Amino acid sequence: MIFTVNKTIGILVMVLGIVMVSSSFAGHKMHDADLELDVDNAEVVKQGKYWFARRCAFCHGGGGIGGKGPCLTCGKFAYSANTNVDIMTTISIGIPLNRGGSMGAFGTTMPAEAIIAVVTFMRSEEARRIKSGEIEDPYAHKEEAMVFPE
Ligand code: HEC
Question: Ligand 1 atom 17: the closest Cα is on which residue?
Fold first, then answer.
């Protein structure tokens, strides 16, 4: 009986801890060393949407759902490791032919803030699509792995 109560309290403390840690990081990042993006900042997302429509939608589809180029709001990045830093690097330097790519570099024609805003827009769209059930949650397996031992 006491053991069960202790275990329940233990789980509660762990869950509370996770909630507290995650709420202190409002932005989006894939791991501690990744660049945190202000996905809740409507102004940055709006700027990113503007640049995306001008420079990216032609190949990646409106809202980044994919077209000639791959989907950028599905949470899967085959060419770039799925981190904000790597995705920004890909956008800046492009994907050269010797890496099997054909996308040009944007680092010379877009300011750094615009590239950050574009990825912030992509991540906010990704979150919205996962939440609305439009796409399957690509990160779901991570939660499944959180099994508490008996
Ligand atoms: C002329 C077409 C074209 C334009 C314009 C374009 N892309 Fe791409 N992009 C591609 C293609 C095609 C690929 C797939 C790899 C390849 O063939 O180069 C790609 C790949 C990518 C990837 C890698 C995805 C992965 O799986 O890791 C990212 C990120 C990306 N594009 C972002 C952007 C952004 C952001 C913009 C606008 C600033 C943009 N692209 C504009 C054609 C384009």
Answer: 101
